[in-house]
Structures are given as C-alpha cells and as structure tokens.
Amino acid sequence: MLALIARRLMTAVPTLLGIILVSFFLMRLAPGGPFDGERPLAPETREALQAAYGLDKPLGEQAWIYLSRLVQGDFGPSLVYRDFTVTELVAQGLPISLMLGGLAIVVALIAGVSLGLLAAIRAGRAADKAIMMMATIATALPTFVTGPALALFLGLWLGLLPVSGRGDGAAWLVMPVAALALPVAGAIAKLTRAGLATVLKQDHIRTARARGLSESRILFKHGLRPSLVPVASYLGPAAAGLLTGAVVVETVFGLPGLGRYFVQGALNRDYPLVLGVVTIYAALIILFNLFADLIYGWLDPRMRDA
Known about the structure:
By secondary structure, the protein is mainly α. It contains twelve helices and no strands. Helix 6 crosses helix 7 and helix 7 packs across helix 9 (about 215-225).
C-alpha cells in the first residue's frame, strides 16, 4: 500500500504543476483584464496599477514569481477584493466548500449503497425497477436544475428551509447538500446494484448458500466488499464532480464558498483569485483520487501493484 501511495504522489506533483501553469497562461491570454471597466482608466493609471501588481513583466517572469510565492503558501493579493489576500479569501471559503462536499459524499454513499443493495436483492422485481428508474433520473438531473427546484419547492413554496445564505443552525445545509448528493447517489446506486447482482451469481456465493449460510451473512460478508470495487473507482470522479458542482450550488444558494469566489474572480479577471481557487481544487481532486485508489486497493488487493 505504501508503494501505491508513493507512485501516486510521484505523478501528483507534476500533474498539479501542469494544471497551475496551463491555468496561468490561459487566464493571461484571455481577452479583457482586471482593470477593464465601464469607464476606461487613464493610461498612466493603468500602467501604475499593472506595475504595482507585476502585470507589466513578461509572462514567463510572472509565472516564475507566482510559483515562487506559491511554494511559500502565498497566493498573492486579490485584484478585486483589495482589502484581502487570496489566502485569506481561500481560508474563508474553503471550510464551507469542504463541508458541503464532505456531507454530500457521505449522504450519497449511504443512500446510493443502501438503494443499490435493496435493488440487487429485489433484482427483476418492481422495487428494483423503481429504484433504478429513480437513480437514472437523479443521475441525469444537473445541480443547476435540482438546486433552484429545491429552493423553489422547499424554500419559497413550503417555507421549510432557508433559501439563501448561511444560517446559525444546520438547516441551511440541507438543500445544498441534497442538490450535490442526488446525482452522485444515483450513480452509486446503479454501480452497487450492477456489482452486487453480478457477485451474487458467482460460484463462491452458490457454495456459501449450499453450506447453509444465512442470506444476510452471504450478502454482507461475501458479496458486498467485491461489489463495491466499481463504486471505489467512481469516488475520485465523483469528488471532482462535487467540487465543480459546488460552484453552481454555492452561487444558487448564496453561500460564501470557494465556488462563489471562483465565479466572481473569473467575471472580474481577478487572476490571483482564480488561480488560487483552481490550485486548491486541483490539489483536492488529486488527493481525493489518491483516497479512491487506496480504497480500491483495500477492496481488491490485486490493484495494489497496478
């Protein structure tokens, strides 16, 4: 397992570096700039601002300066939120995004695996067909549809939950977490059902039944672990989807997470803010994929040498 971690880390560092450099140059080459507004600035004012933030230097030198600061944990100053550094904005938004994503993946795993188990046990029956139909619908609905729909139904029509902002209790988490978890739970339910239905038809399961083992012991001791291998391989992309989906959800529900700062930074060409959020997102996605590989290796020891 340690060898697996070492191999993944050896590829993670250059991958992260490549993402940062590509994002850096794409942001600089995009039309527009952080000092473009409805009223154009005087040439001398624009030149002074560019010199103050180092934007008058060649792109290669700017990239080297940014990487040098990044190694020290400095994401640079925000060009729009002038009273804050990017590090301070990330420190404010990251806990909210991690809370939403963490709760969403836990809810999706519990709901998806439970529904997949129930569907596999009732394979071919009405319950199986109903669960798979709901899972397909949940997987197909994007967060920019489920988020506003939940806000309209549960927030505005029924008045059960707060529609926008972060409240004192936990009620403000319900709709954002549900919007993020629904498509992931649907996919996990389908993967669990397919994996378990295949495992339950294998010879060692028939041998266990012939030995008189109870169905619950067969299911949870001999069937569940190998059937979750496809789910483990899906966890990495699922975590990435939750992070990117949080951009929409945080904007819809007015939550001050990383996604909201990313949208505002992109609209205002706040280069350091966008690059800081992209760097955090990329690092988290790589970390989540590492965790998924570790779970995969635990479920299927043959993959530890892959």
